[in-house]
């Protein structure tokens, strides 16, 4: 297991395809929005944010090996530095 991931790999990962996983990420983002804006949400906002990360990690596992994920991580940091997102 890579040092990058925070969640265990999903069981039956091979049963999902990329389109389904993108839909899952979108679904989790919508749930986070509802949790943020609706005071009667059953699941806390922070939990829903973690679900987004988990779904994104699953998409990465489906498409890239550990070395590729590490390289992609570096590329995102580099891109965001150039945009001035880090202090």
User: In DSSP terms, counting alpha (H) and pi (I) runs of 4 or more, how many helices?
Assistant: 3
Shape annotation: globular
- Terminal residue distance: 31 Å
Strand content: under 5%
Low-confidence parts: none
Structural class: mainly alpha
Order of helices and strands: HHH
What is Rg? 15 Å
Main sheet properties: none
Counting DSSP E segments of at least 2 residues, the number of strands comes to: 0
Q: What labels describe this entry?
A:
64% helix; 87 residues; Glucan phosphorylase; 3 helices; mainly alpha
Write the layout of secondary structure elements.
Blueprint: H1 18-37, H2 45-63, H3 66-82
Task: Give a quick summary of the entry.
This is Glucan phosphorylase. It contains three helices and no strands.
Structure characterization notes:
The chain is mainly α. It is built from three helices and no strands. α1 packs antiparallel against α2 (45-63). The mean pLDDT is 94. This is Glucan phosphorylase. It comes from Parvibacter caecicola.
């Amino acid at each position: 297991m890579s040092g990058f991931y925070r969640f265990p790999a999903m069981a039956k990962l091979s049963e999902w395809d990329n389109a389904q996983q993108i839909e899952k990420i979108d679904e989790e983002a919508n749930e986070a929005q509802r949790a943020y804006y609706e005071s009667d949400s059953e699941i806390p906002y922070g939990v829903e944010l973690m679900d987004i990360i988990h779904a994104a990690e699953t998409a990465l596992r489906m498409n890239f090996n550990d070395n590729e994920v590490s390289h992609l991580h570096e590329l995102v940091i580099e891109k965001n530095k150039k945009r001035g997102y880090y202090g």
